Structure formats: C-alpha cells, structure tokens
Amino acid sequence: MGITRLFSTPQLPPVGAGDLAVVTGATSGIGEATARLLVEEGFRVVGTTRRPEGVDKRIEGVTYVGLDLGDPASIEACAAEILALGTPAVLVNNAGESQSGPFEELPRDALERLFQVNVIGHVDLTQRLLPAMRAAGRGRVVMVGSMLGSFPLGFRSSYVASKAAIKGFASAARREVAPFGIGFTTLEPGSIATGLSARRTTYVDESGPYAAEFGRMLRRLNRNESRGISAERVAREVLRPIRAARPRPHYAVGSMAPVAFALSRVVPQQVMLNVISAKHDL
Ligand SMILES: NC(=O)c1ccc[n+]([C@@H]2O[C@H](COP(=O)([O-])OP(=O)(O)OC[C@H]3O[C@@H](n4cnc5c(N)ncnc54)[C@H](OP(=O)(O)O)[C@@H]3O)[C@@H](O)[C@H]2O)c1
After folding, report:
1. Ligand 1 within 6 A of CB of 25
2. How far apart are CA 83 and CA 216, in angstroms?
3. Which domain holds residue 20?
4. What pLDDT digit, counting tens, does each position of 148-193 carry?
5. Ligand 1 mean position, distance from CA 74 (Å)
6. Counted domains in the chain
7. Model confidence pLDDT, tens digit, residues 64-93
8. Is residue 43 part of a domain?
C-alpha cells in the first residue's frame, strides 16, 4: 500500500442547509442542543423522543417523531416516518441510558435493555436509513459514545461496554459506507452538565460488598457531571464531522479530552485506568 493511501481520510460530498438531519433523543441535554444548532445551520431537523406529544421545550424548526430504542417496533415505525419526510443527510445517534452498578450485581434484564437502547437500537435505526442515504450518495452518521468507552471506569462496566460497542460498529462500518459518500464518526463526550445524573439507572445491593465504594464513585461521578462543560459546547463538536469534507473517525470533548488521549498513547494502560479511578474517588 502506498504511503499516500495509508494517510488518506475519505473525502465526502458536502451536507448542509436545506438537508434533512435526524437527532435521536432531542428533548434534553446534548441532543436538544444539537437539534437547535442544526436548525440554526439551516437543516430541516427531525428530533426523536419517546413522548412526541409531551415535549415541553419544543424547538421551532424541529419535527418531533416518536422513538423508543428499547422497542424494535418503535424503531421500525420511526424509520418509516423519517423516510416519509425525506432522505436524511445527517443522523446523530445520541439518545442513551446511563447505567451504573457493580459488574457482579448487574441484572440480566437491565443489561439486555441497555444494549438494546445504547447499541442495537442505534444499529437498527441506522440500517433502516442507510439504503436511502446510500442511494443519495452522501451523508454523515455520528454516534454519540462516551470517553468512558475509551477510558473504562469501575462500576460503569455495562455502560462502558455499550459505548465501546457503538464505537466498534462505527469504526468498522466506516470503510464500508465511504465509497457511497457516507461518513461514520464517533464523538466521545467527557463530563457534560446535562442533569443526566438524575436520570441514571443504578443497580447495587445496598448491603452488599461493593456498596461503599460504589456510593463513593457515584457521588464523585455526579459531581463531575454537574461541573462538566455545557451541552452547547458538545453540540458544536457534533457539527465538526458534519461540516468537514474529510470527517475523522473519532472526536472527543470535555474532561480534558486532548490531554487524556495524548497521555493514553504514551503511558501503560494500567496507568490510565488508575488515573480514571482516582478522578472518581476509587
Ligand atoms: N452527560 C454526560 O456527561 C455524557 C457524557 C458522555 C456521554 N454522554 C452520552 O450523550 C448522550 C446524551 O446524553 P445527555 O446527557 O444529553 O442525556 P439526557 O439529557 O438524559 O438526554 C437523553 C435523551 O435520550 C432520550 N432517550 C432516553 N432513553 C431513550 C430510549 N429508551 N429510547 C429513545 N430515546 C431515549 C431522551 O428523550 P425522551 O426522554 O424524550 O424520550 C433524551 O432526549 C447519551 O448517549 C449519553 O450516554 C453523556
């Protein structure tokens, strides 16, 4: 293989004002901020929510469509509704569940739901929209992962694994869809102040062997989130692979992402694991 090819990033046709953009989980936090920014950029925006009739803070210019990623029938109906509105040029797979608990105590039904919502649901929705995007010959798919997908943290194993899984899908499928003008990118946010802590699902035996350390980690995790950067800052990062002619496979923002990723290239993995633990009182 030639050196030029080795260092090349696929160049893609542009997407922009007037095009259709889909943002899953557009009623709160990162998804809401991204939907608002895409409207400002001139996109026609479809935002998903589990309760389209009950959206409190409706954004002018966003069409709300029902989607429960835990329900395959809802995903099928959502994709049909989106395609009836047009062919998406942008798909931001943002919706997600934040789950915590000691590995030993995670219930099987909670694991299955998390992987359906955070991984299989996004894969399913993307598969249903890709044929139209491929026929159009252009598009951008952005998976919202988490820096924990790259830097694992104790008591977050299921969430870490779901975010690493979605990154794996995106990084591998990237090569498959590039010849059709479609970019696949993973964006990994660090700690973002969206109020997500209040919506976290937790599974722990309060009188079990892990309860004390789990509680300590969770308190620090929630404090880090409340002191995190804004959802608007993350939304601006989501826009980077959408605007770029040559979107990168991976972007990250918050929690000193540039330092963390640079450090991880030069120190042993155990050092990184220790740093992440220490940042969470473990
Ligand atoms: N906040 C952080 O510190 C942080 C850090 C790293 C990564 N992330 C990731 O960034 C993404 C957004 O996080 P956020 O903090 O903005 O969360 P958020 O404020 O809780 O918003 C989550 C969105 O997802 C939707 N949603 C939740 N469960 C769903 C389901 N089963 N099916 C379909 N939609 C569902 C919600 O919409 P409805 O309730 O209207 O259905 C809501 O709009 C998530 O993937 C999260 O894992 C967040």
Report:
1. yes
2. 46
3. 14-278
4. 999 999 999 999 999 999 999 999 999 999 999 999 999 999 999 9
5. 17
6. 1
7. 999 999 999 999 999 999 999 999 999 999
8. yes
